[in-house]
């Protein structure tokens, strides 16, 4: 029950308040409003605050160069005389030689892949505490004191890779928690990503790692962001071969079709037999989401969650997307009630 589930939220995550994103050829108000997390926090109060578990678990996923960039990017932007939020405008095509340049615009290009993910004055603080929120929520599951735990993370994390930001994401909260669970002795961990968008960052981080299974159900990248990842033929590489499962679905997908894909993912997770499950939960599969195109109704979320809960694994739920701000608390509350 949501009423009793262990849950963590830290208000320092609200320090990130991006003004705009580049959208369909022009600037639009940014969809990742602080009110997203604030509304959920109000509805499901009280939450445990995040404990500071330090940088080491972050650096088990992200490169030191990237973390250093993220921490200082906005100050560097200011130092270059720029107003507002920092954002790149030039990116190295994949395969370009990895130049280590000082210019802030070049560094923004090197460590990002899109123009919808600005670095704001509060981005480092918020992202740091989002990662700590996931790690804090993981601890009682590791200890066996809790069977299920909810990390109310914002900004989201699943698009962030080891050395890049993108898709409103800066630090990959779910991947940081999954790696921490591995380091704590869990031999096999699964990440199930049920956000509307493919979790390309999580996929990249664990692509060659056979000890972390990544399964994702998402809008077909032939039609939807992030386009260049999330296709069904991405199955993992090297030791990770077979430990990556992408289930792209068309726009307009209803709960019935969604559940069929979910059951395929759950069967694969069960075969992998993880001792711990991380769920990247996005409520942007909701029919009223302003940037997404599935048809999941508010009343479907408990039933969706019940199927995941039936796996019977110790589970950490990590908040990802969901942009219908007024319906978000209902959808999250419904999802958590399914556990
Ligand atoms: C983050 B998460 C252009 C539209 C692209 C990016 C979506 C990021 C979603 N501005 N939007 O997966 O919910
Ligand atoms: Zn999403």
Automatic annotation (TrEMBL):
Its cofactor is Zn(2+). Belongs to the histone deacetylase family. It comes from the Bacteria. Keywords: Hydrolase, Metal-binding, Zinc. GO terms for molecular function: histone deacetylase activity; hydrolase activity; metal ion binding. InterPro entries: HDACs, His_deacetylse_dom, His_deacetylse_dom_sf, Ureohydrolase_dom_sf. It comes from Brevundimonas viscosa. This is Acetoin utilization deacetylase AcuC. Residues 49-336 form the Histone deacetylase domain. Signal peptide: none annotated. GO terms for biological process: epigenetic regulation of gene expression. Pfam families: Hist_deacetyl.
